[in-house]
């Protein structure tokens, strides 16, 4: 009798804490591991916070997927992070102006958007204009499109709706697959409905 009450309580607790996703589309796709051959990505994961060297890498000519992996490696924290603020400081220094939003390249907008999304993953809305700007400027980049889709999926607690937002990209022949296959698999394995 007592055992059945405990089991019932645990089942109810599971239903209450799992509205659709085990955690969230933005925080549960650790695709940085696929890029563990890139020293800056490993360093980002170890530090968990941007420093000058990592900011310079994000501002460099490195490929967009490596920049995404670095940001993914920085991770998230339930109490929030400040990586977007640190990157904005690097942008202010680069442009010698506090008003950088209108000056951002597609890749800078992407980095700022992804960092913003992870810094406060429960509120992805402030990140979306940056990710949209990047997507409009680089409409064929799979990396940019999938991160924007994850941020949009984060807005919904409905896992089926979130899956539809992300799944449409898998068959989009217009996108250049500029993200390693293992990283794409990590994202889809998490998002796919009915996963074990």
Q: What can you tell me about this protein's structure?
A:
The chain has 196 residues and is mainly α. It has one domain (23-191). The protein is 58% helix and 0% strand. The protein has 10 helices and no strands. It has helices at residues 2-17, 39-47, 52-58, 64-74, 83-95, 106-119, 128-137, 142-154, 159-167, 181-191. The radius of gyration is 18 Å and the shape is globular. The two termini are 29 Å apart. The model is unreliable at 1-22 (pLDDT under 50).
Label the overall shape.
globular
**How is the main sheet built?**
none
> Which percent range describes the beta-strand content?
under 5%
Number of domains: 1
Q: Please give the number of β-strands.
A: 0
Task: Report helical residue fraction.
Answer: 55-70%
Helix tally equals 10
Through-space gap between termini: 29 Å
Q: Which consecutive residue ranges, at least 5 long each, have pLDDT under 50? A: 1-22
Keywords:
58% helix; mainly alpha; disordered N terminus; 0% strand; 10 helices; globular; 196 residues
Task: Give a quick summary of the entry.
The chain has helices at residues 2-17, 39-47, 52-58, 64-74, 83-95, 106-119, 128-137, 142-154, 159-167, 181-191. The protein is mainly alpha-helical and 196 residues long. Helix 8 (142-154) runs antiparallel to helix 9 (159-167).
């Amino acid at each position: 009798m007592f055992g059945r009450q405990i089991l019932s309580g645990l089942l109810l607790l599971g239903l209450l804490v799992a509205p659709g996703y085990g955690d969230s589309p933005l925080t549960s796709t650790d695709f940085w591991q696929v890029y563990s051959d890139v020293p800056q990505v490993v360093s980002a994961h170890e530090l968990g916070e941007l420093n000058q060297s990592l900011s310079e890498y994000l501002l460099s000519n490195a490929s967009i997927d490596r920049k995404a992996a670095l940001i993914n490696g920085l991770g998230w924290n339930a109490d929030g992070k400040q990586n977007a603020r640190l990157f904005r400081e690097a942008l202010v220094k680069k442009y010698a102006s506090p008003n950088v939003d209108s000056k951002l390249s597609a890749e800078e907008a992407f980095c700022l958007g992804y960092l913003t999304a992870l810094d406060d993953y429960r509120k992805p809305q402030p990140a979306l204009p940056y990710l949209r700007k990047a997507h409009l400027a680089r409409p064929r980049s799979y990396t940019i499109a999938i991160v924007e889709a994850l941020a949009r999926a984060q807005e919904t607690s409905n896992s089926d709706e979130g899956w539809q937002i992300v799944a449409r990209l898998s068959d989009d022949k217009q996108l250049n697959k500029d993200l390693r296959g293992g990283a794409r698999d990590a994202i889809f394995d998490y998002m796919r409905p009915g996963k074990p």
